[in-house]
Task: structure prediction
Amino acid sequence: MAAARLARAAPAAAGAALHAAGGRLPLPGGGGHHLLGHSQGGMYPAGFVYIFMGLYYATGRGTDIRMAQNIFAVLYLATLLLVFLIYHQTCKVPPFVFFFMCCASYRVHSIFVLRLFNDPVAMVLLFLSINLLLAQRWGWGCCFFSLAVSVKMNVLLFAPGLLFLLLTQFGFRGALPKLGICAGLQVVLGLPFLLENPIGYLSRSFDLGRQFLFRWTVNWRFLPEALFLHRAFHLALLAAHLTLLLLFALCRWHRTGESILSLLRDPSKRKVPPQPLTPNQIVSTLFTSNFIGICFSRSLHYQFYVWYFHTLPYLLWATPARWLTHLLRLLVLGLIELSWNTYPSTSCSSAALHVCHAVILLQLWLGLQPFPKSTQHSKKAH
Result:
C-alpha cells in the first residue's frame, strides 16, 4: 500500500493542482498518465506538490519504498525532537509520559512510516514554527507556519491562537507584517497555479466545504449518516467551534482586565503593558486553539490523529487539577488511543473519544492559568 501511495502521490498531486488551475503537466513516468480531476476529488496546496514531487524523485520515481520509509522515519524522529524541545521549555509534563508518546501509539507509527501521509510533514513544520515562536523569532515562526499550511490546511486550526498571540505581542499594526509573511508565502508557493486560474486553485486547495465520507469517520460513527452529511449539522459544529474559541479568548487567554479590543493597540499604549509571553502562554494558546478545532471537526479520519497526538500530554498535564489524577489522565490517553485504533470505528469508540475530549476541554477551562498581569513593558521581539 505504501508503494502504491508513493508512486501515485507526487504525479497525482501535481496533476490535480494544474488541472484545477486549467493547466497541463506531463506527469513523471510518461505523458499518458491521467490528470486527477474533480471526479476523483484530488486537490492539494502547492507546498504538498513540491515536497511529494521531491520524494517521488528521491525514491526512484516511487519505486524505492525502503528509502521512503527511512525518510519518514527520520521525519518521525525530527518530530519527536521538536516536540521534546517544546515540552522541555514548558516544564509541565512528567517524564514518564514521554514513554507513551514514543512507544505506545501503533496508529501514529503507521501514519508516519507505513502510510507515508502528508499530515506528518505538515506537523513537523508546525512544531518547528512553534519552537521558533518560543525563541521569539516571530517572523521565522510565521514563515514556517505558512509552510505547514501549504502542505495541509489542518494547520489553520492553530491560526486563531497564533493571531491572538501576535496581537498580544505586537498589537494590530505590529502584527500586520507577520500576517503578511504568512499570506505572501502562500502566494509565492502557489504562483504557478495562481497565474493560470487563481479561483480554481484557491477553491480546490483550501476547500472548506469539502464533504467527508461517513465510512471513514472516527468521531461521529454514532450519528445517522443522513445527519452526518447534513449542512445544518456542519453549521452547528462551526458555530460551536467559533463560540468556544471566543469564550477562551475572552475568559482564559485574555486576563489583563482591559477589553479584548485593547489587543489592537500598540502594547506600549495599553493601560496594562504586557509582560513578554512565556513558553506556557504560547504553547497553551496554540495547542488549545487546535484542540477546540479537533473537538468540533466535521469528521476525523485515521491519519488525522497526528494533528493533535503529540499535544495531548501537555493539554492534560499543563495545569494542576486535583480531580484529574495521573491515573485518570493516563486512562484518558489510553481511551483516545483505543478509539483511534478501532477499525472500523463503532458507536462506542466514537462516543468514548468525545467523552475524553470533553474531559480535556473541562480541564482546560477550569485549569488554565491567566496571563500574568504586569506593569513592565514587553521586551522587543525579533
Summary: The radius of gyration is 21 Å. DSSP finds 15 helices and no strands in the chain.
